[in-house]
Design brief:
It is a single chain. This protein is an all-alpha fold. 89% of the residues lie in helices and 0% in strands. It has a single domain (32-203), classed as Ferritin, core subunit, four-helix bundle (Ferritin), CATH 1.20.1260.10. Helix 1 (2-72) packs antiparallel against helix 2 (76-102).
Length: 211
């Protein structure tokens, strides 16, 4: 009986050791998984910050471009739209600075190649169209809408990413700007459809008649 009891204890000891080894392996796996997730979050957060720096630069650059758009425009309605959007853009910059603060980061700008390209394209359009013509207004509207569409894509993507990362306050702030960009895009379309596009077409017709 004593021998059987001793064997049972030894067997129980071996079984317990196996269980302990299994627990250690499980703990290592969990730790490894947690480390990987942490690294992934760090990478995603870095991408988020870089993207915010990019759009921050873009908005600050736009505050310099919009007055040029306003000066080049012929239609008073279009001039007013550019003037109004400058004020909105300044509010959006303040909102981005608030987002940086929430994330515990310093508000910094990182050159946005896309916005620089779009603004240069707009300057070329101004140079290549006749001053005081509705054709120039059409070109300015299209150039401005290209900017709006870029910003809509940027803010829409960032808002969704912030929501995924659990940063709901940041997502809400980005969402506010996203809606403003959409409204500006719609306003530009309305201005074009009201009369500018038709008037620009008539300008072309007059030139053909004169020839």
């Amino acid at each position: 009986m004593a021998k059987q009891a001793t064997k049972a204890k030894k067997s129980s000891g071996r079984s317990g050791g196996s269980s302990s080894s299994s627990n250690k392996s499980s703990n290592k796996s969990s730790a490894s998984s947690a480390t990987m997730t942490s690294e992934q979050n760090t990478m995603l957060e870095k991408f988020m910050i870089d993207s915010l720096k990019d759009i921050y630069w873009a908005e600050k650059h736009l505050t310099k471009a919009l007055p040029k758009f306003e000066k080049a425009a012929t239609s008073q309605e279009l001039k007013q739209a550019f003037q109004d959007h400058l004020e909105v853009t300044e509010e959006q910059i303040a909102r981005l600075e608030q987002i940086f603060e929430i994330m515990g980061k310093k508000a910094q700008a990182k050159k946005c190649e896309a916005m620089e390209g779009l603004s240069k394209e707009a300057e070329t359009v101004i140079e290549e169209t006749e001053k005081g013509s509705k054709t120039r207004d059409v070109a300015l509207i299209i150039s401005a809408q290209k900017v709006e569409h870029y910003e809509i894509a940027a803010y829409g993507g960032l808002a969704q990413l912030a929501r995924t990362m659990g940063m709901n306050e940041v997502a809400d702030l980005l969402g506010q700007t996203l809606e403003e960009e959409k409204e500006t895009d719609q306003l530009l379309t309305q201005i074009a459809e009201n009369d500018i596009n038709l008037q620009a077409e008539e300008e072309g017709g007059e030139e053909e008649t004169e020839e």
